[in-house]
UniProtKB/TrEMBL annotation, chain A:
Protein source organism: Terrapene triunguis (Three-toed box turtle)
Gene from which the chain derives: WRAP73
Origin superkingdom: Eukaryota
GO cellular component, one term: ciliary basal body
Pfam families membership: WD40
Name of the protein in its database record: WD repeat containing, antisense to TP73
InterPro entries listed in its UniProt record: Centrosome-WD_assoc, WD40/YVTN_repeat-like_dom_sf, WD40_repeat_dom_sf, WD40_rpt
SUPFAM superfamilies (alphabetical): WD40 repeat-like
Gene Ontology BP, a term: positive regulation of non-motile cilium assembly
UniProtKB/TrEMBL annotation, chain B:
Localization of this protein: Cell junction, Adherens junction; Cytoplasm, Cytoskeleton, Microtubule organizing center, Centrosome, Centriolar satellite
Presence of keyword Cytoplasm: yes
GO cellular component labels: adherens junction; centriolar satellite; ciliary basal body
Top-level taxon: Eukaryota
InterPro entries the UniProt entry points to: Adhesion_Centrosome_assoc (IPR052300), Afadin/alpha-actinin-bd (IPR021622)
Keywords: Cell adhesion, Cell junction, Coiled coil, Cytoplasm, Cytoskeleton
Region (Disordered): 482-506, 537-565
PANTHER family: AFADIN- AND ALPHA-ACTININ-BINDING PROTEIN
Protein name (database record): Afadin- and alpha-actinin-binding protein
Coiled-coil ranges (or none): 128-215, 373-400
Lineage of the species this protein comes from: Eukaryota, Metazoa, Chordata, Craniata, Vertebrata
Amino acid sequence: MNFSEVFKLSSLLCKFSPDGKYLASCVQYRLIVRDVNNLQILQLYTCLDQIQYIEWSSDSLFILCAMYKRGIVQVWSLEQPDWHCKIDEGSAGLVASCWSPDGRHILNTTEFYLRITVWSLCTKSVSYIKYPKACQNGIAFTKDGRYMALAERRDCKDFISLFVCSDWQLLRHFDTETQDLSGIEWAPNGCVLAVWDTCLEYKILLYSLDGRLLSTYSAYEWSLGIKSVAWSPSSQFLAIGSYDEKVRILNHVTWKKITEFEHPATIANPKIIVYKEMEKSPRVETESLAFPPARAQASSLFSTQSKYDISQVPVSLQYVKPVADRANPRIGIGMLAFSPDNCFLATKNDNIPNAIWIWDVQKLKLFVVLEQLYAVQLFQWDPHQPRLAICTGNSKVYLWSPAGCVSVQVPMEGDFQVLSLCWHSSGDSMALLSKDNFCMCYLEREEVK
Amino acid sequence: MGDWKTITVPALSSEKKNRSTCGTSEKKMSPSSLNMQQVLRSPLPLSKSMHSFFSAFCTEENVEQSISYLNRELTTLGFPSLYSECKDKELNVVSVLNCMNELLVLQRKNLRAQEEVEIQHLKLGSDMDHLQNCYAKVKEQLETSRREIVGLQERDRQQQCKHRNLHQLLKNEKDEVQKLQNIIASRATQYNHDMKRKEREYNKLKERLHQLVMNKKDKKIAMDVLNYVGRVDGKRGAWRTGKTEARNEEEMYKVLLGGYEQRQKQLLVENAELKKVLQQMKKEMISLLPPQKQKPKERAEDGIGPVLSDMEEDAVELNKENMWELSCETVREQLTNSIRKQWRMLKNHVEKLDNQVSRAHSGALNGSDVISREDHELETEKLELEIQQCKEMIKTQQQLLQQQLMSPCDDDTSMLLQDCYLLEERERLQEEWKLFREQKKNFERERRSFTEAAIRLGLERKAFEEDRGAWLKQQFLSMTSDHKNSEHVKTQSAYSGSSDPDNQLMNFRSRQKKPHCLPSVPPSEELCQTIQHIPHNSNSSVVLNKTTEDSKPKQWKGLNKAETE
């Protein structure tokens, strides 16, 4: 594993281009495009204000930079550095901005979710979509980029509009039986749209591409409901993580639950491997300590090593009791991700923030539990193999694969706290992001030990 | 005192009347005491009876004897002697009187004591009665109170049970209430949070609106582009028409259908695999079960006979169905039913075996069905030995395998190994190819023969048609010009070569006129005949027939085959 040198970064804005050749990063109001292999600066663009969001177009020719405070989106071209484009939303304000799948339209969500403006880079036409829904994932594109689903809300009722991306024709418009829609997601095969309700009501609805309601699923009433949703890459399974610390898997044939995964604090089954991260401080002779030393000691002064140890079952994990009278409590399954080969599902239970649970999808059983020293910030699967990269906010990055797991210290001078990471589309390298810097990590081809 | 009694008894009988006038009923006491009582109770009228009584014991004759007797008795009782001290046989009146007084006193004392005793006795008797009554009453009370206690205990127990149940229910209800309260609380906080968020946004909106209303100079909403970019696919944008809308709809449905078709394919493949597995299972189950002939007894018992034949029928049917891969309801039901039946039979069989084994263990030897204990043990020993041997073999195999793997297997050896495997596979494939080629040749040969036969048939048919045409022409000619027989003969002779057989042939043909109209089979018969007739040129039509019939079967079959093909 090779690490590159550290570069400046702000707001964790660092993205690989879809074709895998370039890496775009932001430093305040400047956008820097580098070559992925040697990290040399290829282009440098200057925007009008501090950049809050960047996105590559699907053909890797353009990058959009959104500045929400000023309400401006600037688009830069890689082929022609002189080309410029500035979209000013003016008094309408700007809350979100994204590309359309063809890479020639930009969808701006104005302030207060008043409307979505579709700006075309090819023609002079501007389209407006009224009454978009004010939620996190209100816009969803199918994987092949043909259709777009948009959540709307009119007269206190939720609707879904399906558009054809090529000419923005409204294909279907139907209402949903949700109280307060909180997210939509297409299945990878583009035929089914999952729509789920607010966390106060456990309800997920499945619509077919032509707007028919295929099925409804509700596991229980009254208690807090769905927290996270993930489709399997083959569209066979839909994993729903909820506030009751369980993941329920629905199958695509009958849309009924085939199994549910529990996340208890004690693991007793001897068939499950539990990897526990242990600090290896050079002072202490023995290999492992039960609890880590204080954070100050764990800084790079000592460059403490850590390694994984297999814990003997039964293992009792660190359980955090949630604060009862807070809204959006930190309980339940907050993160869900399927591996790209559809063999594994990685989940994180916010009640046990230090652990990652890896489930075997073929056998529908718990396979591995990784117990970290610190709370897991982010995990992401390698786009090609069943390899999971994890960061917990300290200066190490962790990798797990069915062959084993390893913890790697990022060899930087000073404090480099890995807050986020993203894989390169080939799976050979990844970018590790901290608050002010980022670095590239190149992985070797052979298997991780 | 015995003597006294014997003496006084005869006298008593005469005194009975007297006594009865006194009214005493006491028979227990001795007669003397009775008399004494009489004396005590009613002294006056007793003087007469006294006289008579006393005269019974002592009369004038036996005075001395009675005195001596009395003296003897009194001295034995401890009284002083009746005789005087100085002179013998002289009555001491003083001592007599004293003795009498003493006796009276004694008698009085005894009577008193007796009275007291009797009174006490009476008292005790009544006390006893009283106590017995009391005891009976108390016992009854005890019984009733015991029964009451038992009843109360029972009630108490029931009440305790009820109490416990109610307590449990109360606890459950409390838990549920608590849970619901928690849920309500969390929902309330969520609602409040959302409400606050919405209110904040609303406030922002109000401010913005206010700002906009106040602000005269409106910031222009515009896009400033250096130059417009071409589309991804290089074409120009198209107008949105009804046609494009329809096309979009069509495309959407195509996508959906594609997804469904793929899914259906997957499901079909899965179904076929599962059906195959089930079929295999069924076959294996059938093979596991004991065959029909060996156990006719069981057939009678279980009625397997008709079922098995049904099974076989089903199997044949299902095999047929499988070839065409139908997935209709009935096939599925048949398969599942047949498997269920087989499974039941297998289960019965296994249960029977279990019973047999258990019976053998318990020691009951019932003929040849049950294995004796020693045999059983021998078998188990043998099996254990076998198991041991197998295990050892497996171990050695494992070791060898490990050695192979562990040995520095460089590329060459691994390649060689791979080659070996490949060679084996190649040889196998070659053999299979040979077989395949042979089969192919056979098929080719047969096909060729069939085609030849078909060609021949075609040719024959053509020739026959020609013949028929010619014959019809001749017939027509013969009909029109009947007197021109010679011409006929000529023509026919030109055709065949001799007159007599020609006539016969004519007759034959006229007779054969009708069969003309029959289906293809007889015409070919005729055809054969005519063809055979021409080269052979024999005289008798019977012989003709025979020859044709001889050659017919061979050609027949070929033709038939050709036709059916």
